[in-house]
TrEMBL record:
<dbReference type="Pfam" id="PF04055">
    <property type="entry name" value="Radical_SAM"/>
</dbReference>
<keyword id="KW-0411">Iron-sulfur</keyword>
<dbReference type="GO" id="GO:0051536">
    <property type="term" value="F:iron-sulfur cluster binding"/>
</dbReference>
<feature type="domain" description="Radical SAM core">
    <location>
        <begin position="17"/>
        <end position="250"/>
    </location>
</feature>
<protein>
    <submittedName>
        <fullName>Radical SAM protein</fullName>
    </submittedName>
</protein>
<dbReference type="InterPro" id="IPR007197">
    <property type="entry name" value="rSAM"/>
</dbReference>
<dbReference type="InterPro" id="IPR040086">
    <property type="entry name" value="MJ0683-like"/>
</dbReference>
<dbReference type="GO" id="GO:0003824">
    <property type="term" value="F:catalytic activity"/>
</dbReference>
<keyword id="KW-0479">Metal-binding</keyword>
<dbReference type="InterPro" id="IPR006638">
    <property type="entry name" value="Elp3/MiaA/NifB-like_rSAM"/>
</dbReference>
<keyword id="KW-0408">Iron</keyword>
<dbReference type="GO" id="GO:0046872">
    <property type="term" value="F:metal ion binding"/>
</dbReference>
<dbReference type="InterPro" id="IPR058240">
    <property type="entry name" value="rSAM_sf"/>
</dbReference>
Length: 272
C-alpha cells in the first residue's frame, strides 16, 4: 500500500548544476511510479520512510505558498520541474501541487522545463500555454511495450507517452523527448528505435535528449532480475559488460541515434 504523507518544505526553488537549468522544483519526495531503474531512490534515506522505493510519497503541501515568496527574490533563470521525481504522479490528481505551482509561475519570465512520464500533464495544458518559455519533456527508456511494462509498470505505454507530446505540440507548447536511461538490450533495438523516431517526427517533438543508465549498485541490483526475465541468459551479461566499459556502448549509441535523427529529421542531443 502506498504511504502518503503531507510535509512542509523549508524552500522549494533549489539551485542546480544541471546544464540549462538554474533551479529545480520538486513538488513531491518519492515517486509512486516506481520505475525499476530509477536513480532517485537515494532520497529515501532522507525521508525516514521504511517502505521500498515506489511505495511512498511526501507531498510538499506548502510548495505554492513558498514559491510565490521565493520567485519575488529569485534571479532569472530556467526552473526545472520534476528533475528528481515525477510532478504528475498519481497523488497530483488529488493535491494539485504542480498545478498550483504553475499557476504561481504564470508571472515567471525565466523559462520552465518540465519533465514527466504521465499523461496527467495534459490536464494543465491551459496553464502551460500561458507561461513564457515553457518546454515539456516526456521520458521513456524504450519504445518496446513489453519491456516498458516490466521496467516502468505504472506509467502509460511509450507510444501513448509520445502521443501526449503530440497533443501538447498541438496546443502550441514546445516539447522534447528524454530517451533515458539507455539500457543495453532494452533501449537499442533497431525496430523500436525506428518506430520511436518516426513517432517523434509525427508528434513534432522539438528535440530528443539522450542519457545513459547509471549502473550504481542500488539501480543495478533492482534492474538485474528484470533484465534476466526479459532477456533470459543474456540480460545479466549485457549489463555487466556495460558496467565494465560504458565508452564502447555510448559511442555505438551516439552513431546510431545521430543517424536516426538525420533520417527522421529530429534533433538529437546527448548528456554524454
Ligand atoms: S517516474 Fe521518474 S522519478 Fe518516478 S520512479 Fe520513474 S524514473 Fe523515478
Amino acid at each position: 500500500m502506498m504511504a502518503v504523507r503531507e510535509i512542509y518544505a523549508r524552500r522549494i526553488l533549489n539551485p542546480t548544476r544541471i546544464p540549462g537549468l538554474r533551479y529545480s522544483l520538486n513538488p513531491y519526495v518519492g515517486c509512486a511510479h516506481g520505475c525499476v531503474y530509477c536513480f532517485a531512490d537515494y532520497m529515501r534515506k532522507y525521508t525516514g520512510h521504511r517502505e521500498p522505493w515506489g511505495q511512498f510519497v511526501d507531498v510538499k503541501i506548502n510548495a505554492p505558498h513558498l514559491l510565490r515568496r521565493e520567485i519575488e527574490r529569485a534571479a532569472p533563470g530556467v526552473i526545472g520541474i520534476g528533475v528528481v521525481t515525477d510532478p504528475y504522479q498519481p497523488v497530483e490528481k488529488k493535491y494539485e501541487i504542480t498545478r498550483k505551482c504553475l499557476d504561481v509561475l504564470r508571472v515567471w519570465k525565466g523559462g520552465i522545463s518540465l519533465l514527466t512520464k504521465s499523461d496527467l500533464v495534459l490536464r494543465d495544458a491551459d496553464l502551460l500555454r500561458e507561461i513564457e518559455g515553457v518546454e515539456v519533456g516526456i521520458s521513456l527508456s524504450t519504445y518496446n511495450r513489453k519491456f516498458a511494462a516490466e521496467l516502468e509498470p505504472r506509467v502509460p505505454p511509450p507510444d501513448e507517452r509520445v502521443e501526449v507530446l503530440a497533443k501538447l505540440a498541438g496546443s502550441g507548447i514546445k516539447t522534447w523527448l528524454f530517451l533515458a536511461p539507455l539500457i543495453p538490450g532494452i533501449s537499442d533495438r533497431d525496430r523500436d528505435l525506428e518506430r520511436l523516431f518516426e513517432a517523434a517526427r509525427k508528434a513534432k517533438v522539438g528535440e530528443i535528449f539522450v542519457d545513459l543508465f547509471n549502473p550504481y549498485p542500488g539501480a543495478l541490483s533492482r534492474l538485474l532480475p528484470h533484465m534476466e526475465k526479459l532477456l533470459p541468459g543474456k540480460g545479466k551479461s549485457l549489463l555487466m559488460s556495460y558496467k565494465k566499459d560504458r565508452m564502447a556502448y555510448s559511442s555505438e549509441m551516439k552513431m546510431l541515434l545521430l543517424r536516426l535523427g538525420w533520417k527522421y529529421d529530429v534533433r538529437v542531443k546527448f548528456s554524454f
